[in-house]
């Protein structure tokens, strides 16, 4: 919204449940996919389409759901179908069909898409202007994973989750919900431009919530995992000491130690019950990357989506305060001079990494904010002419074969600081502050000015030292004031990714997975509220 | 093969599948249908599409082990293969200690959530409904962005214990946001119906147009506690989270028993039977209500009945899973498919007229939980926020961020208006005192 949906295991639209072994079965042979794609493209052209693309998608998911000492469910699902998008009479049309293995069925979907485009053309004000795109011929891309998570026996995953849950219960948790979600998108794209791209994308998302209850006082507190969903295979769960970041609690980089984190979480959930309630007021905030990713997502990623700027999302996610005049001025201070944001669809291990986007554009990296100044947006083929670009930036995506592709956020990240700075040294300079780790509550207005964020762990900083845990903390700020209050960003050695599987946008709402990198950053004088209430 | 099966067509296939069973228990769930949509922005159609699908899922159980397999082909050989596959998966699955045996035959209420007019929607119909929304905006130099989605579906369940259930339903959701050309005013309207002949996109758009024009050049008021009149779209949303739906869905008995809900009692147990809200608050579910008809059964085959959740401010019922109900020795009331909140007879205009000082809120946006203990939520006003003085709307005001709990809100009740359909539920506009706005937003 981009509403980030609830962090529940998502099953793709029209998915069917299958046996675990089915997740390792090969999909359609590439020659069959090409034949189906050509049938759709030819049928669309025959009915008068001036452009057509077809996506043959196979979406495989596995969720392992546990609580305490129980397996609640193991869901393996597969969704297969074909989506055809066309331009006819200057207007877009789209149709999709499930389980389509026959050329005539795919061709019929293409014809329906053309009929829809023609029905809507009478409301047309400006015909679609599609940026030219070279055809790449027959190409392929595979996520550089080390171990396909579907090859790991379910038994091994269950044992890991239950062992972690037992550790949480032993260390003071009253309840634990622990879910492991694994995704494989096998996507075949073809267009009338002459690209046939076959891609294999993998994602993994371990996620738990530990709850501690104080029945005497009728209170409870939770602590969520500090993991990040990643564009990786099962290697993310294979612990490597070099992926750990020490400090007040351990954080993780490209490898996640679930057992260690859940043990700490149980103790911290209990500690939260008796933590000091924050005194509302202005504080310097020191934000860990496990927290900052969400603030970047909401206050930088979304407002720089060109479709929002232009009004295409006005009825749902909203528009944007970053209007074109601000970009044209070349002097709009989005943030302080230490603030640099970049978009990147190629970053290894990120959720957004692919070789080609869902309209056949080769992916890349580009700057959005440079030395604090707004320099660019995120745009796709039918928009780039508006910002004077000759080719799309390659951030078009559909969450399923049954969904129409549109502009989606690439990975948007805060570049690390250029001069050496550790977290420890950053905290040393803070007189009155709060160190926030992990993402919590989040809300932002429909033009992305006013936001409020919570977190998982809050530590009070006094005179350069962490003095104890706080609770009931949320901060409210205005996007531009907030990023202009950024006074320091730690160096590259602290750069880590966070992200979400389920960024929601569009109608019907589609879910997109996206990562956001940053190093720990410091913000001056931010308004902190106390969220405790009595009912 | 059509994707919208009749009861007889679905039952024939389900019975065939059940005949192949070698498991202790076997159930079949079949669903299918068509969804169509049209989306517009900047006064033109942006995307539009249609999707059809039909699928069948088989769940086999041996003791407390279950396995599921699904298929989209319906010849006998494929069906039998699917049953064998589900049985194989069940044999290999870990035991679920909370597994409940399948239900036997059930008695269901007669409900009617289906309208042929909606099933007959064509791409041309969607284009016309969109034209009716865009055209008046173009003529007044306003910009419309909107969305209409229609669905025609069926769902059928059967199992080897004799349960047999079938439901078909239709739904249409429509929403439109109208903005002034200078971007300084924005208005919104939303409708949802079972029968598309009851939807008038032009009328709904005209309300959004009026709000857009009236909300232009809003003034800033200091954040703080205000008397508010919340329109139904501010209480329940067709899209995204909302205060009333969030509370309704947080009433699960198990969470309350476990001490991690707003309905948990200090010292243990739940707050069932306690008066937690103003005595005018009565909320129930009823799948037979003709204004918001629902399905006759829940996902696991339990009958949906009329259930009163809150009566005169007192918590009367809480939803239970079958497992938790058995453990606690109580009736396993499923979560309601819809909710209906009783209201009064006043129109929104009457409520404004009787307000000395207050703020009229068209809708809230980006509502997220802040503290599950107190059901504290944050979010913002959007698309038409107005200051009321001496019974009249005086001027538009800038949007606010709120931090408020529906539990506190339903204790600070001043007045209830006439309920209207919103997101498949019935909810009245409400006048609330001391609603907490914590900051201002520049967003329009």
TrEMBL record, chain A:
Keywords: Hydrolase, Metalloprotease, Protease. InterPro entries: Metalloprtase-TldD/E_C (IPR045569), Metalloprtase-TldD/E_cen_dom (IPR045570), Metalloprtase-TldD/E_N (IPR002510), Peptidase_U62_metallo (IPR051463), TldD/PmbA_N (IPR035068), TldD/PmbA_sf (IPR036059). GO terms for molecular function: metallopeptidase activity. Residues 281-528 form the Metalloprotease TldD/E C-terminal domain. It holds the Pfam family PmbA_TldD_1st. Residues 52-117 form the Metalloprotease TldD/E N-terminal domain. The keyword Cell division does not apply. GO terms for cellular component: cytosol. Residues 150-273 form the Metalloprotease TldD/E central domain. One of its GO terms (biological process) is proteolysis. SUPFAM superfamilies: Putative modulator of DNA gyrase, PmbA/TldD. Belongs to the peptidase U62 family. This is TldD protein. It comes from Spirosoma oryzae. The lineage of its organism: Bacteria, Pseudomonadati, Bacteroidota, Cytophagia, Cytophagales.
TrEMBL record, chain B:
Gene3D superfamilies: PmbA/TldD superfamily. One of its GO terms (biological process) is proteolysis. Residues 223-438 form the Metalloprotease TldD/E C-terminal domain. GO terms for molecular function: metallopeptidase activity. Residues 31-90 form the Metalloprotease TldD/E N-terminal domain. This is Putative Zn-dependent protease. Belongs to the peptidase U62 family. The lineage of its organism: Bacteria, Pseudomonadati, Bacteroidota, Cytophagia, Cytophagales. It holds the Pfam family PmbA_TldD_2nd. InterPro entries: Metalloprtase-TldD/E_C, Metalloprtase-TldD/E_cen_dom, Metalloprtase-TldD/E_N, TldD/PmbA_N, TldD/PmbA_sf. Transmembrane segments: none annotated. Residues 148-212 form the Metalloprotease TldD/E central domain.
């Amino acid at each position: 919204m981009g509403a980030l949906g609830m962090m529940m295991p998502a099953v793709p639209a029209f998915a069917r449940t299958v046996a675990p072994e089915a997740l390792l079965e090969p999909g359609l042979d590439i020659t069959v996919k090409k034949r189906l794609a050509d049938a759709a493209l030819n049928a669309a052209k025959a009915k008068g389409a001036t452009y057509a693309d077809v996506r043959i998608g196979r979406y495989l998911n596995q969720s392992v759901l546990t609580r305490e000492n129980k397996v609640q469910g193991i869901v393996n699902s597969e969704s297969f179908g074909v989506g055809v998008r066309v331009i006819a009479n200057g207007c877009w049309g789209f149709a999709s069909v499930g389980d389509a293995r026959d050329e005539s069925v795919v061709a019929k979907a293409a014809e329906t898409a053309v009929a829809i485009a023609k029905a809507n053309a009478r409301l047309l004000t400006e015909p679609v202007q599609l940026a030219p795109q070279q055809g790449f011929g027959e190409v392929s891309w595979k996520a550089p994973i080390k171990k396909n998570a579907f090859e790991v026996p379910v038994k091994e995953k269950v044992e890991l989750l239950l062992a972690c849950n037992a550790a949480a219960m032993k260390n003071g948790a009253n309840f634990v919900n622990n879910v492991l979600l694994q995704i494989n998108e096998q996507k075949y794209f073809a267009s009338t431009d002459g690209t046939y791209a076959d891609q294999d994308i993998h994602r993994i998302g371990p996620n738990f919530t530990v709850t501690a209850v104080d029945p005497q006082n009728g209170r409870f507190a939770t602590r969520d995992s500090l993991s990040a969903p990643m564009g990786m295979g099962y290697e993310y769960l294979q612990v490597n000491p070099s992926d750990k970041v020490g400090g007040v609690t351990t954080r993780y980089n490209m490898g996640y130690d679930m057992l260690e984190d859940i043990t700490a979480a149980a103790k911290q959930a209990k500690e939260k019950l008796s933590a000091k309630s924050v005194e509302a007021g202005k504080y310097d905030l020191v934000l860990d990357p496990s927290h900052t990713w969400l603030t970047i997502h909401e206050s930088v990623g979304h407002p720089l989506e060109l479709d929002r700027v232009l009004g295409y999302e006005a009825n749902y996610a909203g528009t944007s305060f970053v209007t074109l005049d601000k970009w044209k001025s070349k002097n709009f201070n989005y943030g302080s001079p230490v603030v640099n944001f970049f978009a990147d669809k190629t970053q290894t291990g990120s959720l957004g990494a692919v070789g080609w986007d869902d309209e056949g554009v080769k992916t890349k990296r580009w700057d959005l904010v440079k030395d604090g100044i707004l320099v660019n947006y995120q745009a796709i083929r039918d928009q780039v002419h508006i910002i004077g670009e000759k080719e799309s930036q390659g951030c078009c995506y559909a969450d399923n074969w049954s969904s129409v592709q549109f502009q989606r956020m690439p990975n948007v990240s805060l570049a690390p600081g250029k001069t050496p700075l550790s977290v420890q040294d950053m905290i040393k300079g803070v007189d009155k502050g709060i160190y926030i780790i992990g993402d919590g509550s989040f809300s932002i207005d429909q033009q992305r000015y006013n936001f409020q964020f919570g977190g998982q762990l809050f530590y009070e900083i006094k005179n350069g030292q962490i003095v104890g845990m706080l609770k009931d903390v949320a901060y409210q700020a205005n996007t531009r004031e907030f990023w202009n209050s950024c006074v320091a960003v730690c160096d590259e050695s602290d750069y880590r990714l966070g992200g979400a599987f389920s960024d929601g946008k569009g109608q019907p709402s589609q879910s997109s997975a996206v990562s956001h990198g940053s190093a720990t950053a410091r913000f001056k004088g931010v308004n902190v509220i106390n969220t405790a209430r009595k009912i | 093969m059509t994707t919208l099966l009749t009861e007889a067509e679905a039952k024939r296939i389900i019975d065939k599948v059940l005949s192949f069973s070698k498991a202790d228990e076997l159930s079949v769930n079949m669903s299918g249908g068509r969804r169509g949509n049209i989306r517009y922005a900047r006064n033109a159609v942006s995307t539009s599409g249609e999707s059809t699908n039909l699928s069948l899922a088989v769940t086999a159980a041996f003791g407390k082990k279950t396995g599921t397999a699904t298929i989209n082909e319906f010849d006998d050989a494929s069906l039998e293969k699917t049953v064998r596959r589900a049985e194989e998966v069940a044999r290999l699955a870990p035991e679920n200690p909370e597994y409940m045996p399948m239900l036997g035959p059930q008695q269901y209420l007669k409900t009617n959530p289906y309208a042929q007019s909606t099933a007959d929607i064509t791409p041309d119909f969607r284009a016309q409904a969109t034209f009716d929304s865009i055209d008046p905006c173009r003529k007044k130099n306003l910009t419309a962005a909107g969305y209409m989605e229609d669905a025609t579906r069926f769902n059928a369940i059967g199992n080897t214990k004799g349960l047999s259930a079938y439901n078909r339903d239709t739904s249409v959701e429509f929403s439109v946001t109208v903005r002034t050309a200078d971007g300084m005013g924005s208005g919104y309207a939303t409708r949802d119906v079972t029968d598309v002949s009851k939807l008038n996109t032009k009328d709904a758009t005209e309300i959004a147009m009026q709000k857009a024009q009236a909300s232009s050049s809003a003034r800033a008021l200091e954040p703080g506690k205000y008397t508010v009149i919340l329109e139904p779209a501010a209480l329940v949303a067709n899209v995204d989270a909302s205060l009333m739906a969030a509370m309704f869905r947080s009433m699960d008995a198990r969470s309350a028993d476990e001490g991690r809900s707003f309905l948990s009692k200090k010292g243990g147990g739940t707050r069932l039977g306690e008066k937690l809200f103003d005595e005018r608050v009565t909320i129930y579910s009823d799948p037979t209500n003709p204004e918001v008809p629902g399905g006759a059964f829940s996902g696991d085959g339990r009958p949906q009945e009329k259930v009163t959740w809150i009566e005169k401010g007192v918590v009367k019922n809480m939803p239970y899973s079958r497992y938790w109900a058995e453990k606690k020795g109580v009736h396993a009331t499923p979560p309601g498919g819809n909710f209906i909140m009783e209201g009064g007879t006043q129109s929104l205009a009457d409520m404004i007229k009787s307000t000395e000082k207050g703020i009229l809120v068209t809708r809230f946006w980006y509502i997220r939980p802040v503290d599950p203990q107190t059901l504290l939520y944050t979010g913002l006003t959007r698309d038409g926020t107005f200051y009321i003085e001496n019974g009249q709307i005086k001027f538009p005001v800038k949007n606010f961020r709120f931090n408020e709990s529906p539990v506190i809100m339903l204790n600070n009740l001043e007045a209830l208006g006439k309920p209207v359909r919103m997101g498949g539920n019935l909810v009245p506009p409400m006048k609330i005192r001391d609603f907490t706005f914590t900051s201002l937003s520049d967003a329009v």
